[in-house]
């Protein structure tokens, strides 16, 4: 079947490529069209497009996790240990990609590849993405990009809905994992200018099966989430409070010797009797916006986060435990000097405490203080009726102080007790956007820096999730990056072409690689440093026949080398993506909005690998989705990995254990509006 399926899907992409209305008139399924949207991310980012995925797109993808949804986008991959995953943007992940939740930089133990985001798609209005350095506005951890998660909530300033109440119930089932998901969202807007929202969700999955029906041992997981939000608008003042609580359990494999024992359990066991993580996240945010006058506004935000992560071997005592508490203080002043000149100045402060409480320690206890001050200036120039130039420039200074607290007996490479590691750096960014008729051209030049994190400097212990022993280096220097980017967007009636070329040059790029040594039978991986270059391009096109057919395809290419010419490890393979979307123009009885979508991804072979890194063959993945609405009920049926391909993604950390990625998965999503 696989040999027949690939040509059929390629043929579908080529059908009727000359017909065509506006591209935006078609709903997007599985491979969503990305739109420029500045509603929630910084409005001054006009020279670097902001991409967006809606809640509708998330439902129709039939994904199991939020990172799985991001993996569907051009230039974004995921590094995963089963369902434990993190996003990778143009080869960068971890502390190089900043995730924003509730308006705050998400703080968790992101220094470990096998410790995923653990975020659900429930209760989300949309996800916004900036690919490429955005450190000027969002801080040093945005050196590779930004992912902003916007919760589902009615804006209290929306005058079109003076009094409104809505609720939505989602029920999901997953064939591969015999999993289920349930989430309920309630939104209420009062006439007095206040609104509030609540979302509760539950998800539970057994181990998945690969394309040959083999059980992927201990890849089960469960998540429980609660989100609360409140907004109040009174005159020139708007306040916004958010509370987020999440608890998750995620199974993992210590080493290959345990796989046989786990496989002796029931195929769909959901018990966490073997190694697993427990993660509790609590977030509170209080944001206030005051409009000083028609041209000036001030935004202040106070946030608190607590991330408690435990690693347990069955029901025994906590093997590895970490508590990360964070206090965020942000202030931004925006001034519209004239209709075409916009000035922003802001500061951010972060206090952080990392504390161990398990029987084993990998990284030391530490206190961290970060302070940043930035400013940007955006100028709009009109040339005639059809041409416009947007110029943006700015600078930022960041100071970071790290104070390790754990004794030298546990970490002999630590500096003297209470010795502070203090580093500061200045970054700049400048860019221009030129709009003429159907063309839009963007040029960006930006710098970014990232200090080595706790794990990269002081790690000394085994990580069962990846079956290895990691060793840090306290002598690592800060990374410094220079990014050059050029993009072109051409739209003509029903046809759109988008292309981006990027070149990222890194000084002191930090990466982890096998050393060839063993400690307690575990292979030793060391954090190393080298100058490097990551360069490539994203290209894509879309075409619409009007209200019936929508076609799209894109290609992502990335090359990542050290300055000595050798390849960097854990770099995603190049990918081609294509989609066909069909919308039935007429209803069938009371059934409306009938949509059918095909989505295919070809992942090229990955033979350009680092020393001791495994090569990866090419593979195809196909998906199909059918959706329709009957009054207040929306039904979506999605089949991912339609041909049940037996494969491993190059960034799968389960490959050394012989565990393949998930096989065919049929997802049924029933949505009820009340």
Strand and helix layout:
Elements: H1 2-14, E1 51-54, H2 55-61, H3 66-70, E2 76-81, E3 84-89, E4 97-101, E5 104-105, E6 124-131, H4 135-138, E7 145-151, E8 164-174, E9 179-189, E10 194-205, E11 221-234, E12 237-251, H5 259-263, E13 275-293, E14 296-313, E15 318-338, E16 341-356, E17 366-383, E18 387-404, E19 421-436, E20 439-450, H6 454-458, E21 460-463, E22 468-471, E23 479-492, E24 495-519, E25 522-544, E26 549-562, E27 575-583, E28 591-603, E29 619-630, E30 633-640, E31 665-673
Parallel strand pairs: 4-7, 22-25
Antiparallel strand pairs: 1-6, 2-3, 4-5, 6-7, 8-9, 8-31, 9-10, 10-11, 11-12, 12-13, 13-14, 14-15, 15-16, 16-17, 17-18, 18-19, 19-20, 20-23, 21-22, 23-24, 24-25, 25-26, 26-27, 27-28, 28-29, 29-30, 30-31
Summarize it.
This protein has a single domain, classed as TonB-dependent receptor, beta-barrel domain (Maltoporin, Chain A), CATH 2.40.170. Helix content is about 5%, strand content about 55%.
Description:
The chain is mostly beta strands and 674 residues long. It has one domain: TonB-dependent receptor, beta-barrel domain (Maltoporin, Chain A). The chain is 6% helix and 55% strand. It contains six helices and 31 strands. The strands form three sheets. It has a 22-stranded antiparallel β-barrel. A five-stranded mixed sheet has the order 1-6-7-4-5. β8 and β9 form a beta hairpin. The protein is globular and about 70 Å long. The model is unreliable at 1-39 (pLDDT under 50).
